[in-house]
Amino acid sequence: MSKIPVMEVFGPTIQGEGMVVGQKTMFVRTAGCDYSCSWCDSSFTWDGTGKHLITQMEPDEIWAKLKEIGGEGFSFVTISGGNPGLLKNLNEFVMLLKENQIKIGLETQGSKWQEWMMEIDELTISPKPPSSNMITNFYSLDDVITKLSSPEFEGNISLKVVVFNQEDYEYAKRIHQRYPHIPFFMQVGNDDTATEDNSMLISHLLTKYEELIEHVMKDNELKDVKVLPQLHALIWGNKRGV
Ligand SMILES: C[S@@+](CC[C@H](N)C(=O)[O-])C[C@H]1O[C@@H](n2cnc3c(N)ncnc32)[C@H](O)[C@@H]1O
Ligand SMILES: Nc1nc2[nH]cc(C(=O)O)c2c(=O)[nH]1
Ligand code: SF4
Ligand SMILES: [Mg+2]
């Protein structure tokens, strides 16, 4: 067995984003990312500020931690980061979850492929729009999506693009047009990931959500799209570990 850099293990909570929004789930957040998005709400996983929180854990140690805090009350685990797609050795942890009849969700930006992704039940790929300052490598993204579109992949995939401005909106549309058969989600960007003033943040995010909905509803080129906020941000604001 080999060790995995774990940033935090938490839950049960609801999946606040995307294709399985509302799902009761535990979270395992891995450390490290190949991106550095300008607005990353989990930048402590890669910018050094959370260095003291990183624990190198064996798969059975992560499982023990999940059972310690989640008890008998969960059947779904979401792996996020950072980018869990950087970790080749996550396969052992993924297989351990499957042996225990746990459904698995994954959050990744689609920049890296790993064979264990074939075992994921609900896989969200979140390519990054211009406001992130990241450049999408479409060779890598095409490759990941091609692999997940093969009949051997038995899970569900979705694309989820965070939108902060008009340029991001146009990028999101291009993503949807490039992969029209993949369920497509637009997510409201949180542009104040530091504030502790929840009531101010929540009303601001709800306004942003309404604006994004209005934009999409008027757009005849976007038909088969789901528009969502980060539900957890509307409940808990920027609180960590929820
Ligand atoms: C923190 S990332 C970790 C997984 C992976 N690195 C990724 O980006 O997909 C999890 C999700 O949060 C989204 N996200 C990050 N910062 C955000 C923000 N400020 N507002 C809205 N969504 C954000 C990302 O786009 C991604 O879909
Ligand atoms: N409740 C909740 N839902 C989430 N969906 C994606 C998250 C993430 O940070 O990847 C996240 C998170 O951190 N919390
Ligand atoms: S890819 Fe995900 S974890 Fe990495 S910097 Fe961007 S939002 Fe944050
Ligand atoms: Mg998050």
Short description:
With 242 residues, the chain is of the alpha/beta class. It contains six helices and nine strands, in the order E-E-E-H-E-H-E-E-H-E-H-E-H-E-H.
Structure report:
The longest helix is centred in the last third of the chain and has 20 residues, at 198-217. This protein has a single domain (4-236), classed as Alpha-Beta Barrel (TIM Barrel), CATH 3.20.20. The protein has a nine-stranded mixed β-sheet with strand order 3-1-2-4-5-6-7-8-9. It has helices at residues 59-70, 90-99, 138-148, 166-178, 198-217, 231-236, and strands at 4-14, 24-30, 55-57, 76-80, 103-108, 122-125, 156-163, 184-188, 226-228. Helix content is 30%, strand content 21%. It is α/β, with parallel strands linked by helices and 242 residues long. The protein has six helices and nine strands. Helix 3 (138-148) links the parallel strand 6 and strand 7. Residues 33, 39-42, 80-83, 107-109, 126, 160, 162, 187, 189-190, 193, 230 line the site of S-adenosylmethionine (SAM).
